[in-house]
Amino acid sequence: MKLGLGTAQFGMRYGIANPGGQVPRREVARILDTARRRRLGVLDTAFEYGNSEEVLGETLHPADEFRLVTKTPCFRTGRVSDTDAGSLRASFLVSMARLRRARVYGLLVHHPADLLAPGGERLYAELTALKHEGLASKIGASVYTRQQLDAMMDRFHLDLVQVPVNVLDQRLVASGHLARLKAAGVEVHARSAFLQGLLLMNPARLEGRFSSVRDHLSRYHGFLAHAGIDPVQAAIGFVVSLPQIDHVVVGVLDAEQLEQAADAAALPALPADQMAPFAWDEESILDPTLW
């Protein structure tokens, strides 16, 4: 199945549509049981997702065949040093201990500016070494913009990238970057299918920083109501339907939400061109790191 499970909520409060905070351990176990039964392949986590890695390590079964993807800490340095590269390896080994795994499917640089900073090749060399040692099957980066993606692809060979794609954020679709990635043989994981829940919220209740997109989202929800399409089905279906996307990573707060997401992923989606009019181009709305 194309659907993958994001686990930030397992380790911390995450998402604007999350009133309950961190998912309780008992519910994590239910969610993972559902993920097994619905045959989800990918679990996405990160060193900086609170204690998400530890929760997964304590809850996963030794025989589980999930493909785990984790991410490096954010170094946020103007120039990458050999010390930073050593820290990448050390933090990765901490991640492995937390996850109780000898290897992972994917290891991504979490903060793209780290890889693009002067000396970023030191981080890439460490990623490559971990891959050659058999500790990570694929290496790559979590990317936010097409400019970052261009710069990375010009400098490095990436096996796997995670990118934002949703009904509002269609920038990488329109620019042809998803097609470029697929042509280069890069595995693409899409995140932010719900845009942290913004696409599922009642637009009438949006205010403050989201006031600029409120009317646009009202038109979108009106379109869905007229077509008889549930917002979850629309959000997931749009991303799943894109042929360049290998996996769509979504976060949930309980097992029922994952069941709903898995059902939505299995339903026919509206043609992508019908969703094109609902694209938005205001970065302060599209990038949750700016909220």
CATH topology: TIM Barrel
Distance between the termini: 31 Å
Overall structural class, as computed from helix and strand content, comes to alpha/beta
How many separate structural domains?
1
* Helicity range: 40-55%
**Strand percent estimate:** 5-15%
Please characterize this protein's 3D structure:
Helices cover 44% and strands 14% of the residues. Helix 3 links the parallel strand 2 and strand 3 (67-71). It has 14 helices and 8 strands. It starts with a strand and ends in a 5-residue tail after the last helix. By secondary structure, it is of the alpha/beta class.
Structure summary:
With 291 residues, the chain is of the alpha/beta class. Helices cover 44% and strands 14% of the residues.
Considering the chains and any ligands shown, give keywords for the structure.
291 residues; alpha/beta; TIM Barrel; 8-stranded parallel barrel; 14 helices; globular
Secondary-structure blueprint:
Elements: E1 3-6, H1 8-11, H2 25-37, E2 42-44, H3 52-59, E3 67-71, H4 82-99, E4 104-109, H5 112-116, H6 120-132, E5 136-142, H7 146-155, E6 160-164, H8 171-174, H9 177-183, E7 187-191, H10 211-227, H11 231-240, E8 247-251, H12 255-266, H13 272-275, H14 283-286
Parallel strand pairs: 1-2, 1-8, 2-3, 3-4, 4-5, 5-6, 6-7, 7-8
